[in-house]
Write a structure and sequence with these properties.
The structure holds two protein chains of two kinds. Chain A is mainly alpha-helical. Helix content of chain A is 73%, strand content 1%. Chain A contains 14 helices and two strands. The radius of gyration of chain A is 23 Å and the shape is globular. Helix content of chain B is 25%, strand content 32%. In chain B, 40% of the residues are buried. Classes of the chains: A mainly alpha, B alpha+beta. At the A-B interface, α9 and α10 of A face β6 and α2 of B. Chain B: Keywords: ATP-binding, Nucleotide-binding, Transport.
């Protein structure tokens, strides 16, 4: 009993330390966003601003057309998530339930692409898109992200765990393959789908490198790219950058609080079979 | 609707899972497909369902050749061993599912589903999810779902195997009741001989993809077509003893023993295999005895007393009257009525009192 209380205390102390470490940058961001410029770089660090400058937030929004960036981010996130949802369900079903020539080899090749670091693919992908004439269009921002090997893999494993008799039963009940997928498999895979698509939304919302590479015009910038507007030759306006960052992160925070269960499950599941 | 199978064959790579199976299943009958695992009974059911397509041969539903018809167009209902209910749908929605796929209007589908739920006595559970039901209740839902679209044929694939012993007994009677009430032709796959014998109008016994015998249950039990059928049916299993003809009229010597036994029937063969059902054997006096041996084992289970008697190197199991005063280690005389003795060909196992055709019923008429 004593021992377990002791180990429990240790665990809580360690977890609390971890939590503080994780939260620190976040707290720093909020605190900086409310500081006057002279306190931003002050030594020793100022944690609580002497004067709460809420006007930083309105100021920040004036630096760049953030309304436009916000709309772009929303469009890109929603369309690429829906696109990925469709390709993932169809591909995972094909790879788990339909027998066709070369299926397993094709799947192995697909998995193989997961081993290629994404940075390596930046240039070939850019070349492909420029040959298609898609540079500086929404297509460039969206289309390359409408399929994810990881999502297909995860969902395929999930589908494989659904008993075969269910598809027999559905066939006898008068389902075509597509109806079976739509009415039985997809609803059953809902937890896996939510997890995969949540991670997708977060990644898509936060994407920085790809949008900055394939877009030039202001009208196509997304929020994370827009944050670079605070970096000028004259230096970085940290208090405004942090104010804008807080606002950019806000929708994801809400999403996280609502969907926490699924996100945690998703992270846990990636370490496990199926 | 009658179902005809005409030389139905199914090959997987080099294995013949079903080999030239021909039979007729009469309208309104409940027929069991019985056999050890791997005998092709489930494959036969899958072929009937249209979930597998046969290598050769044909399947007719009434006049219609359905061999190439897909499962969803065959108008069949099917019940699976693991129930295969849709876990995300409520009981009611599960039962409605086949109707919704047929585009039956929602209101009518609901009424028919509720009616079917009442028939299988789960009317009070229709709002639950399958995960909240017991195994027996889930199986009832599965039966309701299979029957709700009024199929022409009901297929049941080992529907009782996942239930515990008592429930299995109850559901077995339920399946029979529902089948009779609906008046549907049903095919029931099982590896449990007791199940098959108790609920079917006819039993089809298979082994290695080949139909061994196709006859009413009692006929199959009393007049097995070969030693495989004889050994597969009955618990405790039938005793086989090998005997050799001697010079004396009607006297046969038990192999691996010096004892001679008397057989009323004269079979024109040097060596034969005899089949003796344990329940037909009784303890008797020296004059009436068929054989004499030592009791090596005795157990009483409920109303039955099972003994094992060792006659030199041959062991015989017998179910005897529990009142008999007998103990392990004692010598005893065992007897059997001559008409209860079955004679089998020692090489191919054929019942020597029957022909060697697969068609059990045709054979029966010949012997009558």
């Amino acid at each position: 009993m004593v021992k377990s209380a002791l180990s429990r205390t240790t665990i809580y102390i360690l977890l609390s330390l971890g939590a503080v470490l994780m939260l620190l940058p976040f707290v720093w961001m909020i605190s900086t966003s409310l500081k006057a410029p002279n306190e931003v770089m002050a030594m020793p660090p100022v944690w609580v601003p002497s004067e709460w400058k809420f006007e930083n937030f309105t100021e920040a929004l004036k630096v760049a057309p953030f309304d436009r960036y916000f709309i772009n981010s929303v469009i890109v996130t929603i369309v690429s998530t829906i696109g990925e949802l469709i390709t993932t369900i169809l591909a995972a079903y094909a790879f788990s339930r339909i027998q066709f020539f070369g299926r397993d080899i094709a799947f192995a090749v697909l998995l193989g692409t997961m081993m290629v670091p994404s940075e390596v693919l930046l240039i070939p992908n850019f070349v492909t898109l420029s040959n298609l004439g898609w540079i500086d269009t929404y297509s460039a921002l969206i289309v390359p992200w409408t399929a994810s090997v990881f999502a297909i893999f995860l969902l395929r494993q999930y589908f494989l765990g659904i008993p075969k008799e269910l598809s027999f039963a559905a066939k006898v009940d008068g389902c075509s393959e597509f109806k079976f997928l739509w009415y039985v498999m997809a609803p059953l895979a809902k937890p896996a789908l939510i997890t995969v698509e949540l991670l997708k939304v977060i990644n898509s919302w936060n994407a920085f490198l790809w949008p900055i590479i394939v877009t030039n015009s202001q009208e196509l910038r997304t929020l994370p790219v827009g944050l670079s507007a605070f970096t000028t030759e004259a230096g970085i306006k940290y208090e405004l950058l942090m104010a804008a960052s807080s606002m950019v992160i806000f929708p994801m925070l809400i999403l996280f609080f609502i969907m926490q269960k699924y996100i945690v499950a998703g992270v846990a599941r990636t370490g496990l079979k199926g | 609707m009658d179902v005809y199978l005409d030389n139905l064959t199914m090959e997987f790579q080099d294995i013949k899972a079903v080999d030239r199976l021909s039979t007729t299943i009469k309208d309104g009958q409940l027929v069991s497909l019985l056999g050890p695992s791997g005998c092709g009974k489930s494959t036969t059911l899958m072929l009937l369902a249209g979930l597998y397509k046969p290598t050769s041969g044909d399947i007719y539903f009434g006049e219609q050749n359905v061999t190439k018809l897909d499962a969803e167009k065959r108008e069949i209902g099917m019940v699976f061993q693991n129930y295969a209910l849709y876990p995300h749908l409520s009981v009611l929605k599960n039962i409605m599912f086949p109707l919704r796929m047929q585009k039956v209007p929602k209101k009518e589908a609901k009424e028919r589903a509720i009616e079917m739920a009442e028939l299988v006595q789960i009317g009070h559970l229709i709002d639950r999810k399958p995960g909240q039901l017991s195994g027996g209740q889930q199986q009832r839902v599965a039966i309701a779902r299979a029957l709700v679209k009024k199929p022409k044929l009901l297929l049941l694939d080992e529907p009782l195997s996942n239930l515990d012993a008592r429930l299995r007994l109850e559901m077995r009677e339920e399946i029979r009741r529902i089948q009779q009430e609906v008046g549907i032709t049903a095919i029931f796959v099982t590896h449990d001989q007791e199940e098959a014998l108790s609920i079917s109008d006819r039993v089809m016994l298979m082994k290695n993809g080949i139909l061994q015998q196709d006859s009413p249950p009692q006929d199959m039990y009393r007049n097995p077509i070969n030693s495989f059928t004889a050994s597969f049916l009955g618990n405790p299993p039938i005793n086989f003893i090998k005997v050799t003809k001697t010079d004396q009229q009607g006297k046969y010597k038990i192999m691996n023993s010096s004892q001679l036994i008397h057989l009323a029937k004269d079979i024109d063969m040097g060596q034969i295999q005899l089949g003796l059902r344990p329940e037909n054997i009784y303890i008797t006096n020296k004059e009436d005895a068929l054989m004499t041996g030592e009791v090596v084992h005795l157990e009483t289970i409920g109303r039955d007393t099972l003994i094992r008697v060792k006659i030199d190197d041959v062991t015989i199991r017998a179910l005897i009257d529990p009142a008999t005063d007998i103990h392990v280690g004692e010598r005893c005389h065992i007897g059997i009525k001559q008409e209860h003795i079955r004679y089998f060909n020692i090489e191919n196992g054929a019942n020597l009192e029957r022909g060697n055709s697969h068609d059990g019923q045709a054979n029966m008429e010949k012997h009558a």
